[in-house]
Fold this protein.
Amino acid sequence: MVFPLFSAYYLVTDVLSGGGSWSAVLTLAIGLVYLAIGVNIDRGPRRPYGFWQHLTAGLLIGGALFYWWHSSEADYALLATAGVVFVGISARTQRSSWAVLGVAGFLVSTVHWVSDWTSVFSIFTPTRDWVPPLVYGIVGFFFVLLGLLVERRRQPG
């Protein structure tokens, strides 16, 4: 089911763009259209088939955001924020693919920062081997809190 979605995406971007940032704009737009279609499918009896729309929408939107936001510290902060927004979309649509993609985006930012913080080395500075376990532990704790928050909001009364 995902093949026709990516084929339509590829056809539109190939016909309408010459590459670069314009392709990313089209990718984001098509991702938002697929998200709207997925939400519409979810409202009817064909809800199980909306999974592919949501998965493709998340990959396209996330890919466009990563294309724009991958070079500076502020960019990685925006990616981490988008990851949290994706988890919010997951809670709203009740589609786990958004949560998985959101966690992946947040982890991309985390890995970037951990590699930056541990690669600083000089003769006068000891190695920072303690940074990765601490940061990944804090991020894991954050994910647990985020999951509890989402689950609490889904519980009735």
